[in-house]
Design a protein that fits this description.
By secondary structure, the chain is α+β, with helices and mostly antiparallel strands. It contains three helices and seven strands; from the N terminus they run αβββββββαα.
Length: 171
């Protein structure tokens, strides 16, 4: 009857909440394990082709005692920009005191990233780095890109998922 339907719905909502919270816990766990505030990022532009393409999912680590080397692919944030950039380190500049500064560039870009850094900034420092690419899954992130490019798709996806849950309950 009615109360049974309510109970089933209640359990499904609870179940969904559990899935969401475990996903969040896994994410937090990854942050702790990898030392990176965003352990997984999606490549949003073609600036790193052919190494990475739009929609590739990158796994990052960010261990501070691990020195950054030229040729490594890093994800960095620039002041005033929300979205981190995934580019390759092309030059390292090491000071006497061990401070390292470095310059990045997209493999597919003609020029280095100095035009992207904040005004007057010529080098990146360790603190600008969100993480370093350690592995990737090709194209898995396309869903994210499609959701960013076509917000309506996001709602369609949610509607389909919602319908699926409801229909599954009926059967």
């Amino acid at each position: 009857g009615e109360s049974l339907d309510f109970l089933i719905l209640y359990y499904q909502v609870l179940n969904f909440a559990m899935i969401v919270s475990s996903a969040l816990m896994i994410w937090k766990g990854l942050i702790v394990i990898t030392g990176s505030e965003s352990p997984i990022v999606v490549v949003l532009s073609g600036s790193m082709e052919p190494a990475f393409h739009r929609g590739d999912l990158l796994f990052l680590t960010n261990f501070h005692d691990d020195p950054i080397r030229a040729g490594e692919i890093v994800v960095f944030k620039v002041e005033g920009r929300d979205i981190p950039i995934v580019h390759r380190v092309i030059k390292i500049h090491e000071k006497e005191n061990g401070d390292i500064k470095f310059l990045t560039k997209g493999d597919n870009n003609e020029v280095d990233d100095r035009g992207l850094y904040k005004e007057g900034q010529n080098w990146l420092e360790k603190k600008d780095v969100v993480g370093r690419a350690r592995g990737f899954l090709p194209y898995v992130g396309m869903v994210t890109i499609i959701m960013n490019d076509y917000p309506k798709f996001k709602y369609a996806l949610l509607a389909v998922m919602g319908a699926y849950v409801l229909l599954k309950r009926e059967s």
